[in-house]
């Protein structure tokens, strides 16, 4: 198939940036979206033009490194990661617009590459169970109902790609933060610290400049892993409970 | 140089316990005086960095990805082995040890493997305590499944995303130490070289991938946790960024590289669909628990399938060849990976492949769905089936999956002793980056186990032994050795940028990949390997005269990053071929056409090759020197591996 691409090009963080048009021909519908971009980059490189920089790594939909805002949707038209999007989702003659994640908490580094280290700092603020290596109880000493374990797993499946932020008109990180808070609040191992965790992670999220949540649900609708909105409700509960609690945490 | 594996004396079951008692300790108050450099933040790196920081050491952790959470361990699907015997089915530390030694075709060390089996049980406890949501039974206890190469259910799993959940657990422990100020993170930073002073590893030189800055970092020890080198084949199940650069540059600084020809070809991957393909996707081996592997019995039927004149469901049971079940009645579809892969190749070479390219076999869930229902199958493999459908556009609940082997894991790596230290004092290698525990073939669900064993439970003990006898002397990065190393790295960057040839980096990488796959892949022979060696030499020459690397060194520059990695793959590729050529036997993942049993199985030569090949860099353009570490088997009897 033949395609026209409108790609955001930006040399560095201080460059203003803008769209540039490229035409591609002979794209197979079996290619992944990123393989289509590989073809573009091979073309550009052969001509001596700077290839389009984009983040990607595992290409299996699990590492969360790939991003891209494709035709106005994070990760494009299907509910999956960009690396798992295939060209069979497009038609011959299509024009495809490709932008980076747009959020002030994800500053652009170059072209389509953004800095998501704010997510790491949120996890560092409390997204863990405070246990050291060694000296822990036998794994089967704490039975956990299957239904709870499965629910915790559903929250834990977040890949930290940032699509939720990109999808949100306020660039809110509530879905990402709530997924981690939920996973750990559901499990007995995480319950011990759940109050302090909710407070600290929410505070860090605010410090990073992420926007407020207005419950439109765009985050969950665009999440490649289908993280449910109920996580946000649970986080709000945890946060509220923590703010009412007088015990030290 | 005489290689000393430092395996402790004494009975197998007591070696590790005694060793832990005999190693020197660093006083808690002194630990904070030591700086430890950890390169790579996958399971081995993140678990090591977190555990060492918890002990009180200062840790600097480096990764080339934008976050430590993205290391390629995250993509491991199937599970992690542990000798818990929760299923009461006869498992034990000794059985896990035995299975691993046998699965590795008797090319690993007894002492290392036994320790791995011992600490496997601690790993599960640790991960559960961190909040890793492993699969559970209705009674609330942990669930297990069986996996290729084993007859017990000892694999713990989190749907098909076990690597993700374990890595996020280790990443959370690492993040906690970052918050505590004990770990400093350096994401988007690539290690370019190891710095040795007076023969000891004292730091690294890195390139900041955003600014291009070449920087030095000094430390009392350097831990390479940088994964495997499967991307030497261009197409593999590794992440696009996975590379050998850190390990290779350490090798050129004196660290021996062991058994590079031991590569694992995974039997259950999605077949190649065309030349544009950038990577291959693995379908977890756990699928072989319920999926049945088959091809048509006759070539004409296979031809009809390839031309799409008939559908798989049109082929009656009596016309299907469930070749693994027939050939290996006791293990059936659960034979180890190398056996499953090679047999897929054989049936496809005969002309019985089932897709357009003729390089695919079926993995069929029809019978499992009839037996257990679609919901049960979805519960176990739902995400894998979804992934398969997204990539291929076919629904595996309705029509059998098509699979073909692909490069997946590399058992070879930097030579390390029992303490995980390379032959360069102070330089360690953990996880897939070392060669240590899997011999010539790794069993399924053992990579996660080894990465975490090394990081959580081995290095925290063994590192202290070295440090205790090396008083910390904070070395300034202004030391001439650092400056010299920085200058060399800068010169290499400039060299790559100024060649300004006609061919892209990927052009060379793809060419190298084809050579490796054709001549050093699932089956190898002397003629092919000899030819490959010459071809790689030529390609390397062409690379250094005709590669085109655009942009500058002072910015985010993906083609420059790749050029460094491909330059190293070219050198490694040659060594792999040399290693494969010298090993005149077949064992595990290394199958030499010249050495097979009458039934076509790998034929070892224990008399002449029961050793670890440890290659020593002898200088640019010179042949590498072979050092041997003889393998001593005191507990297991070497037998012809049989899964019949």
TrEMBL record, chain A:
E.C. number: 1.3.99.1
GO terms classed as biological process: aerobic respiration; respiratory electron transport chain
GO molecular function, one term: 2 iron, 2 sulfur cluster binding
SUPFAM superfamilies in alphabetical order: 2Fe-2S ferredoxin-like, alpha-helical ferredoxin
Key words, A-Z: Oxidoreductase
Signal peptide: none
UniProt xrefs under Pfam families: Fer2_3 (PF13085), Fer4_8 (PF13183)
Cofactor(s) needed: [3Fe-4S] cluster; [2Fe-2S] cluster
Domain 4Fe-4S ferredoxin-type: 149-179
InterPro entries referenced in this protein's UniProt entry, alphabetically: 2Fe-2S_ferredoxin-like_sf, 2Fe2S_fd_BS, 4Fe4S_Fe-S-bd, Beta-grasp_dom_sf, Helical_ferredxn, SDH/FRD_Iron-Sulfur, Succ_DH/fum_Rdtase_N
Domain of life of the organism encoding this protein: Bacteria
PANTHER family: SUCCINATE DEHYDROGENASE, SUCCINATE DEHYDROGENASE IRON-SULFUR PROTEIN
Family per record: Belongs to the succinate dehydrogenase/fumarate reductase iron-sulfur protein family.
Protein name per the record: Succinate dehydrogenase iron-sulfur protein
TrEMBL record, chain B:
Reactions accelerated catalytically: a quinone + succinate = fumarate + a quinol
Ranges for domain Fumarate reductase/succinate dehydrogenase flavoprotein-like C-terminal: 509-643
GO biological processes: anaerobic respiration
An example Gene Ontology molecular-function term: succinate dehydrogenase (quinone) activity
Record's bilayer topology term: Peripheral membrane protein
Cofactor: FAD
UniProt domain FAD-dependent oxidoreductase 2 FAD-binding: residue ranges: 36-448
Subcellular location: Cell membrane
Enzyme class: oxidoreductase
Active site feature: 337 (proton acceptor)
Keywords: Cell membrane, Electron transport, FAD, Flavoprotein, Membrane, Oxidoreductase, Transport
GO CC terms: plasma membrane
Gene3D superfamilies from the UniProt entry: FAD/NAD(P)-binding domain, Fumarate reductase/succinate dehydrogenase flavoprotein-like, C-terminal domain, Succinate dehydrogenase/fumarate reductase flavoprotein, catalytic domain
Any Pfam family the entry gives: FAD_binding_2
Enzyme Commission designation: 1.3.5.1
Similarity-based family: Belongs to the FAD-dependent oxidoreductase 2 family. FRD/SDH subfamily.
Name this protein carries in UniProt: succinate dehydrogenase
Organism name: Cyclobacterium qasimii
Gene of this entry: sdhA_2
